[in-house]
Amino acid sequence: MKRSPLGIATFLLCTSLCAFAAEPGDKFDDKFRQLDELLPTATPYRTASGAPGHHYWQQRADYTIRASLDEANRTITGSGQVTYHNNSPDTLTYLWVQLDQNIYKADSDARRVQTAPSREAWMKPKGEEGAKYEGLRNTLVGREFDGGFKISNVRSSGGAPLKYVINGTMMRIDLPSPLKPGERVGFGIDWTYRINEQKVLGGRSGYEYFEEDKNTLFEIAQWFPRMAAYYDVAGWQHKQFLGSGEFTLEFGDYDVKITVPADHIVASTGELQNPGDVLTTAQRQRLEQARTAKKPVVIVTQAEAEAAGKSVSKGTRTWHFKARNVRDFAWASSRKFIWDAQGYKKDGTNVLAMSYYPKEGNPLWEQYSTASIIHTIEQYNKYSFDYPYPTAISVNGPVGGMEYPMISFNGPRPTKDKKTGELTYSKRAKYGLISVIIHEVGHNYFPMIVNSDERQWTWMDEGLNSFVEYLAVQAWEKDFPIGRGDPRDIVNYMRSANQVPIMTNSESLLQFGANAYAKPATALNILRETILGRELFDHAFREYARRWKFKRPTPADFFRTMEDASGTDLDWFWRGWFYTTDAVDISLDNIAEFNVSTKDPEVEKAWARARKAEEPVSITDQRNATLPRRIDTQPELRDFYNEHDDFTVTNADRNKFKEATKDLEPWQKELLAQGKYLYLVDFTNKGGLVMPLILEITLKSGKKYIERVPAEVWRYSPRKITKLLVTDEPMTALTHDPYWETADIDTSNNAWPRKATPSRLELFKAEQKAPDMMKDYRTPLKGDDDKDDNKENGRAEANKDSAATTPASGAAAKQQAETGQLKPEAGRK
């Protein structure tokens, strides 16, 4: 660092110019331009503030469904009556219905657009495997599986046949007469379909077969023809379902009767209407007790479930459920279910939290599932609104993690030692279970109530929900292991080349978990902690949830509401984080130190002498240190100049000081005497994403403090800036982003002086082992028991790491992302 006797006026002029000077030849890129060219124009339906407009509307669909589960043949047979309400200002001549199970047809678009892994993955050197057993089985079984809806009848409410056309996963129903604004129409559909084996074909629903006791567990979703959404921004949302983009649906009331084997227990969206027909007296009493219990009450015990699983009932029972104002309906059924429940009542929430799981889920599920549900509701209520539904359910089955109104499917279980039968669970399984339940139950808020368009924007439900999940687990315990939300966990993805912007269609996402879950969750965490602060952010986020509760927001509504309610222009933030693949990489390049010259020769020449003394002694002077000098042997040769040097204060200097300061105002003299230290600090934005400067300043006395500079410091020059820092004493160190709160992808250039990056060097022996066929030939064969053990261990490892390749590749990626199968980004290197 160098000090310059620069005049203060000249100095300030220089800094004002230097701070905003771009490199020669740079094309100016206004990172702070408004999003007007990207966001839709406000309408009477959606305001420029992000709130629903005075003429906001949305459609409604009410369902009456009667369905039967054929356990032996793994099929669903159903008949549904839909009442569709046209609340739009438009006249409709046809309706679109989603047939999501058609993804399992052998000729579905999802299968036809399937691509293989890279050629390198299939052609590894030395004959290594290039594909997993599970992946290849999924592909081959999917080619033969007779899946998809078999539509047998589409009729009007009066019974007249209606013309319909099926296009992949969508079905158009032509209306006999136009449906005008404010009118409603009723129609019926009969259907059947084969249920997929989830562990073979993947997907968001399916069955699991337990070889040990020959029983089956069913998790049933996307199981009936569902009305597609029609809304002001997109018209009919009839994008084909390819596996990743989920669903956007209309709210309505459901009346559903499900006929299952008589010894099955059913968990479902909605409230059970006929407990006297399907539960024993003891079970009904336990259920009532659970509503006010302080801990979970077991409704169906493990002993009762095990007893039911030893024989298969030939009779049936019909479970009747009703649900009000939900956008979907799912259920699960098995004779293996243990069932526990506990009520939670606070403020506007009065909910019965319930868990259903086979004995294979214990001891993990009985301890953590229902507690996790209640924790979720308690925490999500803080950041959004009171949970409005009467039940919240977590079901253990083959689906790793999936959400529906009031019910979710969650996968983690303990592992059983094949030889000893001992049940244990890993740390990953424990925290994976808690976090996936929080995540999936949390989806009741986003998107089951704040009803975003998942077919188009995965991040609007997964990203927002992952963010609130991150907040919720902090309240579970300190240092809860979660790989999404903390800025340091996203840096590997942010520095990678294989990215697309967050604002990419759901079916086109390259790294599903990182893009749709982790990056938006991290962005919102940074917005809360670093940009807005918790008070402003939390108010704005709650306002968004409140405004769009039971309505359908778009990205523009979220962006605009957050700005409107926080009183902050955030267009630069949305543009950088959501519309680009830029990264945060702010480099601290150079520092120059200045003191304001006091003009006092006593001070200034002493300062100059001290700087001279700090200069290194030349090698010549070091070696001449003992050289005999004539002036030492003949002192009479000394004169005035041997007693004084260039730093001697003269009377002329003193007179000049008096002359220079005699006309100064008192405040000007005070300014000269303050002795402030001024630093010009050069920063380069290497990553492209503008962010605030968070500067940790260390002074000579050891004092440290943080100075926060808003992101607008980059508004005139988004590539290079020079920032003026003023301190009361010399600065000895400066660090940008000391707490790793901005997801900076290269922290090695964030400090002055530069800091070495510690690492470890692993030493290893150089060994060359040649193949020995004779030894291999003479190796003893293993027994059948050994082979079985090896098979079982291999299968367990393969299941742990595998993902279905298609047609539910997106579902597999979602389940991996939500159950922790996708490895969280590592810390910084």
Automatic annotation (TrEMBL):
Alphabetical keyword list: Aminopeptidase, Hydrolase, Protease, Signal
Basic and acidic residues: compositionally biased ranges: 765-800
N-terminal signal peptide: 1-21
Keyword Translocase belongs to the record: no
Annotated region (Disordered), positions in chain: 765-829
Residues in Peptidase M1 membrane alanine aminopeptidase domain copies: 370-577
Biological process annotations from GO: peptide catabolic process
A cellular component term, taken from the record's GO annotations: cytoplasm
GO molecular function list: metalloaminopeptidase activity; peptide binding; zinc ion binding
Pfam families, per database record: Peptidase_M1
Low complexity bias (residue ranges): 802-813
Xref: PANTHER family: PROTEASE M1 ZINC METALLOPROTEASE (PTHR11533), PUROMYCIN-SENSITIVE AMINOPEPTIDASE-RELATED (PTHR11533:SF174)
Protein name (Swiss-Prot/TrEMBL): Aminopeptidase
Organism: Pseudoduganella buxea
Gene: pepN
